[in-house]
Design brief:
- The structure is a single chain.
- This protein is an alpha/beta fold.
- It contains 16 helices and 11 strands.
- It has a 7-stranded parallel beta sheet, with helices on both faces.
- Helix 6 (123-139) packs parallel to helix 11 (212-225) and helix 10 packs across helix 14.
């Protein structure tokens, strides 16, 4: 029986993880759950799964939950509580599903405690890739990717990575794949969040619409699989059936296929190296009318180009990119800036933040704060 810590339990990845865990109660026990402010949903989850710990990052939300939590559930609050449950001696597996940079410290704590980390929080690698990968190696932790694209590459490389020449990460193209650039200036948050294939939170939905999500995934792949920037390509595959491809020196190409449902990757991260039921139906290719592949238009999806530039620059550029993107996406969702202003903001911040080596957690935090301050100053005149 493995004790599971789910960081970001009320989000889409967290809820999907709980669905998979519920199919295998003989294998997994929900040990701890975390959320930011949604104490009512957390209360529901506590009653259903009876965790030992429930963490609400927001203290006021923690107070509400504490008054109503079932007997036996210890309610904790604050960001430090996230690292406590992630590194707890009874925790076996950690689902790192907190959106954005807020999930970095707890993911690093899990690595330093030698846990199996099921990584859905790509920002941890974008912000502090070298720190996290070094901690995983030093403390004997496991890092299993949950992003469907990286899970696909991870699965393709189980036989061997010998002769791997490049990987291709597939992108659906989001809701604006065929929208002319001239029309993108008028895009609304609700339109940007209306993804054609995947059910996701608002922030990641906007990232998918700008293709920044794919840019962050390219940076993540660099650290996960020790690939050079020129070994990582992005191709648009609107049907979201092939989740990524691994190319080898002899001309062979391996890919992982499946219906667009995150429970497949979550289930594999839980059961690795074995496989188990995920609740997802098997793919029937006879029902797929076509599988299309396109080269992304970097003029339309300039965020993807910015991410590749940051990856090639290295040092703190990917972390700066991420911070600027988080601030810009939040401003867009709050209707302070337009859709095309997201990439303009990120470009301005990348130009303004000096290049620096991020070799400590303190330097990562300092760079993140600086980048966010500059992003806010760039946005303010436009808001």
């Amino acid at each position: 029986m493995k004790n599971i810590c789910i960081l970001g339990a009320t989000g889409s990845i967290g809820l999907n993880t709980l669905e998979v865990v519920s199919l295998h109660t003989d294998k997994y026990k929900v040990f701890s759950l975390s959320a930011n402010t949604d104490w009512e949903k957390m209360l529901e989850l506590c009653k259903l799964h009876e965790p030992a710990y429930a963490v609400m990052v927001d203290p006021n939300s923690a107070e509400h939950l504490h008054k109503l939590a079932p007997e036996g559930v210890t309610v904790l609050s604050g960001e430090e509580a996230l690292t406590k449950v992630a590194a707890h001696k009874k925790t076996d597996y950690v689902m790192a599903a907190i959106v954005g940079s807020a999930g970095m410290s707890s993911t690093l704590a899990a690595a330093e405690a030698g846990k199996r980390i099921m990584l859905a929080n790509k920002e941890s690698l974008v912000l502090a890739g070298n720190l996290l990968m070094n901690a995983v190696k030093k403390h004997g932790a496991e890092l299993i990717p949950v992003d469907s694209e990286h899970s696909a590459i991870f699965q393709c490389l189980q036989g061997s990575a010998v002769g791997l020449s490049k990987v291709q990460l597939t992108a659906s193209g989001g809701p604006f794949l065929n929208t002319p650039l001239s029309e993108l200036a008028l895009v609304t948050p609700s339109q940007a969040c209306n993804h054609p294939n995947w059910k996701m939170g608002r922030k990641i939905s906007v990232d998918s619409a700008t293709l920044m999500n794919k840019g962050l995934e390219a940076i993540e792949a660099h650290f996960l699989f020790a690939l050079k920037p020129n070994q990582i390509e992005v191709i648009v595959h609107p049907q979201s059936i092939i989740h990524s491809l691994a190319h080898f020196d002899d001309g062979s190409v391996l890919s992982q296929l499946g219906l667009p449902d995150m429970r497949t990757a979550i289930s594999y991260a839980l059961s690795y190296p074995e496989r188990q039921k995920s609740g997802v139906a098997s793919l029937d290719l006879t029902k797929q009318l076509s599988l299309e592949f396109l080269t992304p238009n970097l003029e339309t999806f300039s965020c993807l180009g910015l991410a590749y530039s940051a990856l090639k620059i290295g040092e703190n550029a990917p972390a700066t990119l991420n911070a600027a993107n988080e601030i810009a996406v939040k401003a867009f969702l709050n209707k302070q800036i337009g859709f095309l202003d997201i990439s303009k903001t990120i470009a301005s911040v990348l130009d303004a933040v000096p290049t620096a080596n991020l070799d400590t957690l303190a330097s990562v935090v300092e760079n993140d704060q600086l980048s966010r301050q500059i992003a806010k100053s760039v946005i303010e005149p436009r808001a």
